[in-house]
């Protein structure tokens, strides 16, 4: 009698995690930031998503001082993508907001694209990887005062944040965590992988995203890098 032995390591693509997966962070909306550059490339990415089982994707282009995307322009580009794409992946539009000098004005004007169910009023936000905003916690409190729920993009990648006080304080404030699933493969370095693994073990991750910018690098990360059986098991339990 043959005995089936589960492998100890998996590629993310080979793990089955993308079957029915929702990508909560992507840069697929074409030609609006440092992500996918044109419509043809965006359609290729979405075709690939369909092939590997991803069923929904939130398009979250950057909005920051260096990439000052306007909400109306992003909506127009989204409509163009919807018209061009005829596949099975369900598309949603939001944005990734840098907590910089221009953010507070957008917040005051309610000029924002939320992520997730409308009633949740979640905002995907980020900071510099190296340096914190001058008033990070005050800005988080202001977001909440305005009735929004901050969803912090890729917290595992912030070099200036420490495992103790920084992350615990954010969680105590009610900040939600969106982690990049490819961080667990080590493509952003050992420290980002270690932090992701720690968050995963503690149950601190609310949603997962790919943060895809280029199809080639994404394909490499999910097919040529590996995660453990334990990590796969924990990832399955993340609400996504």
Detailed description of the structure:
This protein has helices at residues 39-52, 71-84, 103-109, 136-145, 165-172, 190-202, 215-224, 229-236; strands at residues 9-11, 22-23, 56-59, 62-63, 90-93, 96-98, 122-126, 149-153, 176-180, 207-209, 226-228. With 240 residues, it is an alpha/beta fold. It is globular. 38% of the residues are buried.
Distance between the termini: 38 Å
What proportion of the residues form beta strands (DSSP E)?
Answer: 15-25%
Helical stretch count?
8
Shape: globular
pLDDT < 50 runs, ≥5 residues: none
Number of strand elements: 11
Any idea what the radius of gyration is?
18 Å
> On the 0-100 scale, what is the average pLDDT?
95
SSE-based structural type = alpha/beta
Helix content: 25-40%
If strands are numbered along the chain, what order do they take across the biggest sheet?
4-6-7-8-9-10
| H and E string | EEHEEHEEHEHEHEHEHEH
- Major sheet: 6 strands, parallel
Task: List strands and helices in order, with pairings.
Elements: E1 9-11, E2 22-23, H1 39-52, E3 56-59, E4 62-63, H2 71-84, E5 90-93, E6 96-98, H3 103-109, E7 122-126, H4 136-145, E8 149-153, H5 165-172, E9 176-180, H6 190-202, E10 207-209, H7 215-224, E11 226-228, H8 229-236
Parallel strand pairs: 2-3, 3-5, 4-6, 6-7, 7-8, 8-9, 9-10
Antiparallel strand pairs: 1-11
């Amino acid at each position: 009698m043959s005995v089936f032995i589960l492998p100890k390591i998996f590629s993310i693509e080979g793990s089955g995690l993308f079957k029915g997966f929702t990508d909560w962070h992507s840069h697929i909306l074409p030609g609006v930031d440092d992500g996918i550059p044109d419509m043809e490339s965006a359609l290729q990415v979405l075709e690939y998503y369909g092939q590997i089982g991803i069923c929904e994707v939130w398009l979250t282009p950057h909005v920051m001082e260096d990439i000052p995307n306007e909400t109306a322009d992003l909506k127009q580009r989204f409509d163009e993508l919807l018209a061009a794409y005829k596949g099975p992946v369900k598309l949603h539009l939001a944005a990734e907001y840098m907590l910089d000098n221009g953010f507070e004005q957008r917040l005051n004007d309610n000029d924002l694209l939320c992520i997730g169910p409308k009633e949740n009023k979640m905002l995907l936000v980020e900071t510099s990887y190296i340096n914190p905003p001058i008033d990070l916690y005050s800005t988080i409190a202001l977001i909440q005062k305005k009735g929004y729920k901050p969803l912090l993009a890729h917290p595992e990648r912030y070099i200036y944040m420490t495992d103790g006080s920084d992350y615990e304080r954010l969680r105590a404030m009610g900040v939600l965590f969106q982690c990049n699933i490819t961080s667990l493969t080590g493509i952003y370095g050992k420290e980002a992988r270690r932090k992701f693994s720690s968050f995963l073990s503690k149950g601190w991750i609310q949603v997962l995203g790919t943060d895809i910018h280029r199809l080639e690098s994404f394909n490499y990360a999910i097919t040529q890098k590996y995660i453990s059986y334990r990590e796969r098991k924990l990832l399955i339990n993340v609400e996504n």
